[in-house]
Specification:
The chain is α+β, with helices and mostly antiparallel strands. The chain has 2 domains: about 325 residues, DD-peptidase/beta-lactamase superfamily (Beta-lactamase), CATH 3.40.710; about 130 residues, Beta Barrel (Lipocalin), CATH 2.40.128.50.
Length: about 500
């Protein structure tokens, strides 16, 4: 009933759910379909991209190497990767392995993610490491939580250098294989059997449909693993047991698990909410909070067309895993919270309805903002093309050419039969039409309509009123933070 209503209200084709209590399976089942095209059913063995839930595996892998005394949590990153540079020289010199995992670098939210999202076709891990030095600090080092992905890629490179193998091979041989997670793999491309894998889904012009799968190997250490609720329950069960020294599989020690589950970076709590939460923090690959007096360990993950969540409550010996094949986080949150309520003794909250109301409000607000922009553009298009027209007279119309950002590389703005186009040379997924909006501001409408990431282009002029460069900003407040257009600064 809970999952069915969630799927209906949030328009999610398929969901996998697993609940473990005291080491026993309470519920483990697939619901709905893997793909709206194939209509094949989801079961407990259906594989999903777990996305950023992969970060816990990267943190655990480093923990294994710490146990083996091959690294220390407080070793400097530059001692393993000498070319590692951040924008601030002091931060570079004092950046420790621990710092790679807890989102306190001083870089902004999702900084540099356009190298891996939406496609990152032309970027390598070497490029990511090289380009970190161009991403400006937005806060002092170790003072503020700002989620990042790129530093987990660096962590994966350290695992490779120290272990003498790749991050992918290390994760599969040292964690997945010992836990008998035999169908899981470190990335989609490494799956031995892809016959039972979900298709990603998203809204395209308001209609949920199959969208392109993210298959880049670049971001594996930050979010590459594919698994099922059945096999992820083995990981969850192991963590709960081993945290209490009750497991017979010596993969990592309870001491290391407690290190991963110890607060490293404070996350502000604005109000206590329904679970009377007063403290929140990020550990190493896990998010931590107090809820109803219990320590709750969790993480979420998101790739194009799929989002996932894993929640552990050690004092209740409880694990909740919810995987979905539609990019709407309200679905996994509603299911997780409703299940938690049953164990917390809370009976009067309908989380599906609560998240539905919140989603409707945020969607409506975002829709109004976006519609106003396109109404203005439509009005512009109705203006006459005759001499004296402010659009055609505006010097900003001479915007065609090549522009370059220090870390993202070149983009071209071209004129094809009177229509302007934007194309990123190193991330061809960012391809779209450009329309004049107001003054020196244009809007790019991406060809891939599943991205929900149309953006403003704000041009600067030189002393002769010719375009000299531009910055960008997402139009919708709901645009995923990994479209970090705000970190770009193009010069012609």
């Amino acid at each position: 009933m809970l999952v069915a209503s969630t799927m209906e209200i949030f328009d999610v084709p398929g969901i996998g759910v697993a609940v473990l209590k005291d080491g026993e399976v309470v519920h483990m089942k697939g619901h709905g379909v893997r793909s709206l095209d194939s209509k094949l059913p989801v079961n407990e063995h259906t594989l999903f991209g777990i996305a950023s839930n992969s970060k816990a595996f990267t943190a655990a892998a480093l923990g294994i190497l710490v146990e083996e005394k091959k690294v220390s949590w407080n070793d400097r990153v530059i001692d393993y990767i000498p070319e590692f540079r951040l924008y601030d020289p002091y931060v570079t010199q004092d950046f420790r392995i621990r710092d790679l995992l807890c989102h306190r670098s001083g870089m902004g939210l999702g900084a540099g993610d356009l190298m891996i999202w939406p496609d990152g076709t032309d970027f390598s891990r070497e490029d990511v490491i090289h380009n970190l030095k161009y991403l400006k600090q937005v806060s002092p080092f170790r003072t503020k939580y700002d989620y990042d992905n790129l530093l987990y890629i660096v962590a994966g490179e350290i695992i490779g250098k120290v272990s003498g193998t790749s991050w992918e091979e290390f994760i599969e041989t040292r964690i997945l294989k010992p836990l008998k997670m035999t169908s899981s793999a470190a990335s989609f491309n490494r799956l031995s059997d892809a016959s039972n894998v979900i298709a990603p889904h998203g809204r395209v012009e308001g209609v949920v449909q199959v969208v392109s799968r993210t298959t880049s190997e670049l971001m594996n250490a930050a979010g590459g693993i594919y698994s099922s609720v059945y096999e992820m329950s083995k990981w969850a069960d192991y963590l709960l047991k081993q945290s209490k020294n009750q497991s017979d599989k010596p993969i990592i020690t309870s001491r290391t698990i407690q290190e991963l589950w110890s607060p490293q970076t404070i996350i502000p709590v604005r109000n206590p909410g329904s679970y009377n939460t007063h403290f929140s923090a990020y550990g190493l690959g896990f998010r931590l909070a107090d809820e109803k007096g219990y320590k709750v360990i969790s993480h979420t993950g998101g790739l194009a067309g799929m989002v996932t969540k894993m929640t552990l409550i050690p004092e209740l010996d409880l694990a909740i895993i919810v995987f979905t094949n539609q990019q709407v986080g309200a679905a996994f949150s509603a299911i997780t919270n409703q299940i938690k309520d049953a164990y917390f003794g809370i009976r009067d909250v309908n989380w599906v309805k609560r998240y539905e109301a919140a989603a409707n409000m945020s969607t409506s607000n975002a829709k109004n903002q976006v519609e106003k922009v396109w109404q203005q553009i439509e009005q512009n298009n109705k203006v006459s093309e005759s001499p004296g027209n402010r659009v055609t007279e505006s010097p900003i119309n001479r915007i065609t050419g090549t522009y370059k950002d220090p870390w993202f590389g070149e983009i071209t703005i071209s004129n094809k039969n009177g229509q302007l186009f934007f194309l990123a040379s190193r991330s061809p997924g960012l391809d779209g039409e450009i329309f004049w909006y107001k003054g020196n501001t244009y809007v790019v409408k991406w060809k891939d309509r599943s991205m929900d990431a149309d953006a403003f282009i704000l041009f600067t002029l030189d002393i002769n009123a010719h375009p000299a460069g531009f910055t960008m900003k997402a139009i919708s407040p709901l645009t995923d933070f990994s479209y970090d257009f705000h970190d770009l600064n193009f010069r012609k």
